[in-house]
Design a protein that fits this description.
5 strands; globular; alpha/beta; Transcription Regulator spoIIAA
Length: about 120
């Protein structure tokens, strides 16, 4: 796991890139948040999609809800970067659409877009 930080307008954002899955359930999400916060002090995180278990994107597993609820409960903001076009599930597409309209969780295609969303949130 590689973590770097960017500071824009007095806001620090942690950017995490990992080749392996870092978040697979609620407990690993909590461990991940606390590790990133300990290392960077950031409460806004950008992470690549491949660092999240694939089951996250199957809404019927309820893993997405469990994981994202941890981020909300602990007042962390999250932007997930990747290509989500391969997912054909209408409920997942609706979920991504609604999340992107909010202020806490974002699904975006680039790191720059992720940082921009988190700054405006």
């Amino acid at each position: 796991m590689n973590i770097k930080t960017v500071k824009i307008n007095d806001m620090e954002i942690a950017i995490v890139n990992s080749d392996k899955v870092c978040i697979s359930d609620g407990q690993t999400a909590l461990d991940f948040m606390m590790s990133v916060n300990y290392e960077t002090g950031c409460h806004s995180i950008v992470i690549n999609k491949d660092a999240i278990a694939e089951d996250f994107f199957i809404l019927s597993t309820r893993i997405a809800g469990e994981i994202l609820q941890k981020f909300i409960n602990y007042h962390f903001k999250l932007a997930i970067v990747g290509d989500f076009s391969r997912y054909t599930s209408k409920p997942l597409k609706d979920f991504i659409f609604e999340s992107n309209k909010g202020k806490d969780i974002f699904f975006v295609s680039s790191e720059n877009e992720a940082v921009e969303k988190l700054i405006k949130a």
